[in-house]
Design a protein that fits this description.
Blueprint lengths: L2 H20 L9 H10 L5 H10 L4 H7 L3 H4 L2 H8 L2 H13 L1 H11 L3 H12 L8 E2 H11 L4 H18 L7 E2 L12 H7 L15 H14 L9 E3 L4 H4 L11 E2 H6 L13 E9 L2 E7 L1 H9 L3 H16 L10
Antiparallel strand pairs: 1-2, 3-6, 4-5, 5-6
Length: 335
């Protein structure tokens, strides 16, 4: 057998194994019996129903590939920023705001959350509903829940939430599509967030963030309110400081572990107008012209509850300001 033949045979074998894996019956996975028992005993599902849905779920290797290389880890801030803070997305945000002005105003008053950040989150997540995901949620959550060991427990819990959510909200489980991580709708809620924070904002008796923009807007606002958003407050401020003073203070996580006063005492120049007692965290970003240091406050932290990435929070806030500026709305979250 020639070397070329060996490579050809290996390639064909790989394709065959991939195909078999994609068609694997999740009822036969080692972790499936415990999952099925839980759905039956704790949530009241019929065993045959759970087994049938697991049998229909398909393992998707591209999902496993995608979750291993999230965009915010692959790109520096100045490149990540360009994805979201660009003319088309800003213009689409202005049009979205004008089209849904009444609903956004009602959400702002009902939940005491700035409309600009609601619009920006929907803009970052799905381009205002243009890209809500192409993966069957059933496939995404089964793939990650059974075949992604680093977070399999978490995604199996989300799969369980999806079963219950589909029953509660009358969702067609086999048809709903979302992100590769199983997030759905205009605001990309995973099933547990859908169940916990989504609201019926149009009063039709259903909670539908997938097809109903009013429910989606109200649900994003409710999520922010529950997590402590403070309307009208500055969320983040750029710190003018030397790297030698700032680097030892850069946050390792997302928690607001210091006060503004502490940062000022350590030589981090936080802009005036922010109280010394305010809780804060210092973040370092790779800007187009070098390192940038930003101090995040309460509202910055709240956005990281939506997506646990400082760059995501920065993109939301800067997009929100850019859209608000063209909508003649006062929104100064970045200083």
């Amino acid at each position: 057998m020639t070397l070329r033949s060996v490579f050809l045979l290996t390639g064909l074998l790989g394709i065959a194994l991939t195909s078999l894996s994609a068609q694997a019956d999740y009822r036969e996975h080692a972790l499936a019996p415990a999952f099925i028992d839980t759905m039956v005993s704790e949530h009241g599902f019929e065993r045959a129903e759970v087994e049938a849905l697991l049998a229909e779920a398909r393992r998707q290797q591209p999902i496993l590939d995608a979750i291993s290389r999230p965009a915010e880890k692959a790109k520096p801030w100045h490149e990540y920023r360009q994805i979201f803070i660009q003319p088309d997305r800003i213009a689409q945000g202005v049009a979205f705001w004008r089209e849904h002005a009444e609903v956004l105003a009602r959400a702002e008053e009902t939940f005491d959350v700035d409309a600009a950040v609601i619009v920006a989150i929907i803009g970052v997540e799905t381009r205002y509903g243009r890209n809500t995901g192409s993966w069957r949620v059933l496939d995404a959550l089964a793939t990650l829940g059974f075949d992604y060991p680093p977070r399999a427990d978490f995604f199996r819990q989300e799969l369980a939430h999806y079963f219950v959510l589909a029953r509660e909200a009358a969702l067609p489980m086999r048809e709903v599509k979302g992100s590769y991580a199983g997030a759905m709708g205009f605001g990309q809620f995973i099933p547990s967030s859908y169940r916990a924070y989504a609201v019926d904002f149009n009063g039709d008796g259903r909670v539908d963030i997938i097809n109903d923009i009013e429910d989606a807007i109200g649900s994003v606002a409710n999520y922010l309110k529950v997590h402590g958003w403070r309307r009208g407050e500055v969320a983040v401020a750029q710190a003018r400081t030397a790297a030698a003073a700032a680097d030892p203070l850069v946050a390792r996580g997302l928690e607001l572990e210091r006060s503004v006063g502490e940062f000022r005492q350590q030589g981090v120049n936080v802009p005036p107008g922010v109280d010394d007692a305010a809780r804060a965290a210092l973040f370092r970003f790779e800007g187009a012209e070098g390192l940038e240091y930003w101090v995040g406050f309460n509202n910055f932290y709240v956005i990281t509850r939506y997506n646990r990435s400082p760059m995501y929070a920065m993109a939301v806030l800067q997009l929100g300001e850019a859209i608000a500026a063209q909508t003649d709305v006062q929104f100064q979250a970045v200083r």
